[in-house]
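Changelog entry

Holo records now carry the ligand SMILES as an explicit input line rather than a separate metadata file. Below, a converted record for LMH73ZQ5, shown in the new format.
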Amino acid sequence: MSTNNAPITESDTSRFVRIKEGDLDLQLHYNDAGGGAETVVMLHGSGPGASGWANFNRNVEPFVAAGYRVVLMDCPGWSKSDPVVSTGSRSDLNARALKGLMHAIGLDKVHIVGNSMGGHSAVAFALANPERVGKLVLMGGGTGGLSPFVPMPTEGIKLIGALYRDPTIENLKRMMNVFVYDTSNLTEELFQARLDNMLSRRDHLENFVKSTEANPKQFPDVGHRLGEIAAPTLVVWGRDDRFVPLDIGLRLVTGLQKADLHVFSRCGHWAQWEHAEKFNRMVLDFLAR
Ligand SMILES: O=C(O)CCC(=O)/C=C/C=C(\O)C(=O)O
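Structure line, unchanged by the conversion:
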């Protein structure tokens, strides 16, 4: 945890913990920053080389400065967490992992910010453990299911699959170029960091391919259950999201009991990164209300 004004770094906040939750018995990696009374858990997306830090490095400091403890969980099968093959619902598996992490580090109730797969997992957690959720923030995810407007799998999801099967820098660039609206923000340093992260865990890449072969519906449609969720929710979407289209966000807003929607124009699948400053202000205001 950071106790002074020094920058918050991945290595200073890096932690490991063993969790046992249902059928899960594994080591998880997470980052833990800040020390407020309320905790915000951030859950990353499912791309190759993703991690809590890769997805949320532009969000941790402002949340800590606002007085929150921030926990970034690396889901089983990503980054420095243990490998796993998911043959059922990956959203439910991640939700169980989060419950195990909360038990292991003594968290009763948290706010959850979820990006893409992280959004699906946040909703799965809220359905299974309603009393343990404060507020939800869902970006580019929250339920699987088809879009009536955009052919699925979308071009972004197809590029993720191609990158998992053939993890080259060329395929990484193809995927990341449709990730964001403004590709001028994608530096060689960013590509390299993501490539290194991906290639350092070939077991994760192979397990993802095995998982989708065993069960192509890793993130099931829970649209019919959204009305069970009473947690106040902010749904945030990029108008130009080429991975999970905006109409999935509309389904969330109409299905959840208490949900507001903000759509960023000129924004792809990584709203928390592409529009970080406005995203941080908006989410902190929502959490404080
Ligand atoms: O298939 C889905 O609905 C989820 C896709 C998804 O999680 C993609 C996320 C990509 C990232 O956020 C990432 O790789 O950082």
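Spot-checked after migration. The longest strand covers residues 24-33. Residues 122 and 162 are 26 Å apart (CA to CA).
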